[in-house]
Protein 1
Amino acid sequence: MVKNLKNYKEEFKDIPGTRVFTTELARKGYHLNQFCMSLMKPENRKEWLADEKAYLDGWKVTAEQRDALLARDYNRLLELGGNIYYLAKVFSTDGLSFVQAVSTMTGMSVDDYKAMMDAGGRSPDGVRSIKEGT
């Protein structure tokens, strides 16, 4: 049994290249994720694509979330409470596949990202702890 929940959750932040979607992030990203889900409706996608800034005016996203959405900074959106499955509505609206969008988050080309995933994903060798650098 976990004795100290705060310390337990802090350990999630030590996993390189991984963000664990915690309840805190879920609360932080609630309005952001609701905005993303609105893009499931064709009329909302059309309105978003016509004037993104005006469409965002109707949502209680933070200024940081707004800026990250407009910049399509998916890594920042994850930090701000975005859930990748909800963010998929944004990049799908932009005409990007999941692979295309996620490759931008890794700094890799689409072809390099696909090759890495076809080979079994990121290597388990290398940095396993941010704070320890090992």
Note: The longest helix spans residues 84-93.
Protein 2
Amino acid sequence: MEIAFALKFLSNVDLAYHWNWFDREIFLSIWIALGVLLGLYLLGKIRFSHDSVTDYVSVPRFFLSVIVFAFVFYMIPGLWGAPLKSISAFLPPMATQDFDLSQIPDGGNNPNGAAPKQSSLVKKYEGNYTRIKTRGLDAWYDYDQALQVSKELHKPIMIDFTGFNCVNCRKMEANVWSDPEVFKRLKNDYVLLQLVVDDKAALDPADYFTSTYSGKKITTLGGKWSDLEASRFNANSQPFYVLLDSDGNMLADKNGKTIPPSPADYDVNSYLKFLDSGITAYQSAQQGKK
């Protein structure tokens, strides 16, 4: 069990530093193997030098072994892309899965069957985030580019302040973003801007700056986005979702009240209301400009 949990934290470091050691199925294979060994140990089939010989398996050990083997059987379909929602927050992201038989959620396309319009811009930093991409969503990773794309496509922006090591982020993506209605809105109605606050990739030395918020010298890409979240939105937790218009202003409802950012919200209906409020506010603002 200690090895299994140590592997989880090593996987986090692997993502942040872009080592690319642990794909999801490799991680699951190791956990499955450890689970089998633990189950056999509980049944007395494996003994170490310090263990005493037992003539029978006690009832508690038997039921513990049943739980362990049940967990092992639960993880096996994950090798073929099963979402494993109950433990998805602890696993490497689905984007690291090489062999995936699962399907993109229904509602990925527009009602008329046409794919949503895409921008022709070349995405900055995209190579850093192939391992945490949500399949089927066209995310952007640079704030200035997202503003440009928003103006081009006439869509509001949703900033997703996220992280490689963010357990709640993975849980939101697996349990909420996978809902067909949520997925449809993120794909068709928003410019999705994912800013990874713990990315250790170095900025170009010409882009180093000293934060006016913390006074620290910012030298990494993650530090840049973390400073943006803290200095502009007074937050430092992830996930943190902010709705903006094409000029970078926070969206406001029909009464002029700013739509507050949302933390992790595992209630699909509540999260849908949040997304819909932004879509409505943006469309109203666009009509007001005509």
Note: Residues 2-96 form one domain.
